[in-house]
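Troubleshooting entry. The earlier prediction with threonylcarbamoyladenylate gave an output that would not parse, so I re-checked the input for stray whitespace and re-submitted. Clean input:
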Amino acid sequence: MQIIRVTDEFEALKPAAQLIRQGGLVAFPTETVYGLGANALQGDAVANIFKAKGRPSDNPLIVHISDLNQLEEIVSHVSEQAKLLMERFWPGPLTLIMPKNENIPDEVTAGLSTVGVRFPKHPAAQALISMAGVPIAAPSANTSGKPSPTTAQHVIDDLFGKIDAIIDGGNAEVGLESTIVDVSGEIPVLLRPGGITYEQLCETLGEVALGQSVTEQLSSNITAIAPGMKYPHYSPNAQVVVVKGENEAIIRYINQQIKNQHSLGKKVGAMVYNQVLPAILHADVLLSLGDIHHRSSAAANLFSYLRTFDEQGAEIVYAQDCGESGIGLAISNRLNKAAGYEIVEVNS
Ligand code: TXA
Ligand code: MG
């Protein structure tokens, strides 16, 4: 397995592009998270992605392009809404679900009649796709169920020896997977919140419906929701509890829980915003989500922190809620899933 470091010269990516063309698996950086890529037009190469990740074969992949001209070999129709979103947000952290063209093998779409397409902004991702000369199908480059990788080291930790090459492009900028919008029907539907916010989508399109996994999260009755999602997501070994409420109440609750858990002999982690952090006492692992008013740092660090808690042996982790506006919707979506929807509301 090769590990290729990205420099300003993309010459170094040539062997990786060659591997893609030959049907190999290459992990590569994008602005959202690292992807595990294969030639999207080659069904057996794509099937190997599922093996390497241990991914259920009925979970479709996103196809990555580096040029709008590639669209016509992937999709059969581009709606007006899709065009508006592409103009404003591509290249970038946005995936569009569109009706697929027959060139796309069933392995990519899990037999669906639609396909997810994304034009990433990361220069190394663009260079790899261009040099390979084919669209690249890629899920996040983690073992299925684990938090998505935001560094090459995370990919090495999960997939070393199972894939052909890893391109190391440093830390992923956004840190959460792309926003997914289904633009194959009449009304666009937000399927997964991400770096492009719901507010930005509505500004561009007017009405945007919320998909089931988003409305579950917004339900006021969250604690009643069984973790009945089909697959576990973003699961660290530690139990994660999301704590929601006023800062003062959060501080009191987490400090009390740390005491309780310590009396049971448990190692406790906490991740909270800077406005709360100095008041959290005696946590065994304490990580900052940054400034509560600038949550891009919370987004960029979330997946990495979930892995850090495991490395440090935390058995239970208290995480401050990230709200639902702007990027908060995407952060909360991942965090709530990591917690299996164990969310505690505390009040002063
Ligand atoms: O930021 C990202 O999107 C990253 C980077 C590598 O591009 N990729 C990523 O892929 O997060 P993955 O496989 O981890 O998540 C893809 C999601 C899955 O939830 C899948 O169910 C959904 O996209 N998806 C793919 N094709 C779909 C389709 N035709 N209809 C509905 N959902 C689809
Ligand atoms: Mg994934």
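This one parsed fine. Residues 15 and 64 are 19 Å apart (CA to CA).
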